[in-house]
Design goal:
- It is a single chain.
- The chain is α/β, with parallel strands linked by helices.
- Strands 5, 6, 7, 8, 9, 10, 11, 12 and 13 form a nine-stranded mixed beta sheet that branches. The chain has a four-stranded antiparallel beta sheet with strand order 3-2-1-14.
- β6, α6 and β7 form a beta-alpha-beta unit.
- The longest helix has 22 residues.
- It is globular and about 60 Å long.
- 46% of the residues are buried.
């Protein structure tokens, strides 16, 4: 038995490394709630989640007032039971982003704790399907970036061995996005993948028009064309185009992914470990996608997702957007456009606690137990 004896919650706010814009928002900050869980053996696991912009204080309030106190005395190895009990303890606010994010911070801490005690890296604890994964980059494809700079970044990524680049779309007229994509395709050639992301900004009429245009450039996927909760419109869009439709970063439950998969509305699943509620439900989505012969290409959080995609067989890419460099002593291992999971016990994230302690937001640190 290894009962939970202590829980600490805190939050830091990260400034993005570059300006990040898409069709609906500007990514000005990354509020990052963190949870540390210690059990009766004295081992501590660390987990985290994030918000793009504001909302982190709401996650912290749920952790402080409801979820963290419920952990004291629980058996740390019973991760599935804890996840489900916490979900139903917040039944009035589930399913939704705030609850899922809070659950993710706890769940990832529990998996970190389990792996540390077992002396195993996360990717092997979860299955160990492979020891590296190709990457595509989003960091040079933001909506405000000029066409020349877009092309230059894609060529630089291609030279480094990256498998593809993602471009944000949703400029006032489709012809503007077409010109950008045409310039990219001509520069990188036919075998380098180009992904596009509309960030839920379109109606079906506009998305259908875009899909027809995207077929010209052999686009790897058309991401979040419409609001993610509108499954039926995605079914209709997917049936009307040869361009694969990608969804998942704005979905918060296993059932939402199930509806997309059984209806044929998604060709790529982009489940986000923070927004789905942690590693426990993430793995369920990944295996469900495998059963439907659908690949998993997760959104954001590359430092954590690298271990998850290397644990499963149906994950062909990892998205490159670095965000933890200021809070870690070493970054994710990258070589020739491929990402490698850490072999250290735990999540594989080498936290810099001096930097984290210096960046804590005043008034949001709490301890229990």
């Amino acid at each position: 038995m290894s009962q939970i004896t202590g829980v600490e919650i805190l939050m830091v706010d990260l400034v993005p490394k570059v300006k990040r814009t898409d069709a609906i928002q500007s990514f000005d900050s990354q509020e990052t709630p963190m949870v540390r869980i210690t059990d009766s053996t004295g081992v501590t696991g660390t987990g985290y989640c994030y918000t793009i912009g504001q909302g982190g204080t709401a996650v912290m309030a749920l952790l402080r007032d409801t979820l963290a106190p419920l952990l004291i005395g629980r058996e740390a190895e019973e991760i599935e039971r804890i996840w489900r009990d916490l979900l139903f303890s917040t039944h009035a606010t589930a399913v939704g982003a705030i609850t899922s994010l809070a659950l993710a911070a706890i769940d990832t801490a529990l998996w970190d704790l389990r792996c540390r005690k077992a002396d195993l890296p996360l990717f092997r604890m979860l299955g160990g399907a492979k020891d590296s994964v190709p990457m595509y980059t989003t960091e040079g494809g933001w909506l405000h970036i000029s066409t020349d700079d877009l092309v230059a970044d894609a060529l630089a990524a291609q030279e480094k061995g990256f498998s593809g680049s993602k471009v944000k779309i949703g400029r006032p007229h489709p012809s503007e996005d077409r010109d950008r994509l045409k310039a990219m395709r001509e520069a990188v050639g036919p075998t380098y993948e180009i992904m596009v992301d509309a960030n839920q900004s379109m109606s079906r009429a506009r998305a259908t028009r875009y899909a027809h245009m995207l077929e010209e450039f052999d686009i790897a996927w058309f991401e979040e064309p419409m609001p993610a909760d509108d499954v039926l419109e995605h079914v209709r869009l997917a049936a009307s185009t040869s361009v694969p439709i990608a969804v998942g970063e704005s979905m918060y439950s296993l059932s939402q992914f199930k509806d997309y998969l059984v209806s044929g509305a998604a060709s790529i699943v982009q489940v986000d470990v923070a927004r789905i509620g942690g590693i426990t439900p993430w793995m369920k989505v990944a295996h469900m996608a495998e059963a439907h012969n659908v690949p998993v290409c997760p959104h954001f959080l590359m430092e954590l997702h690298v271990s998850l995609v290397c644990a499963i067989p149906n994950a062909p890419w990892l998205e490159y957007i670095p965000q933890l460099d200021s809070l870690t002593t070493k970054g994710m291992a990258v070589k020739d456009g491929r990402a490698y999971p850490s072999f250290d016990p735990g999540l594989g994230i080498d936290w810099d606690w001096d930097a984290i302690n210096a960046a804590r937001i005043d008034g949001l640190t709490e301890t229990f137990g």
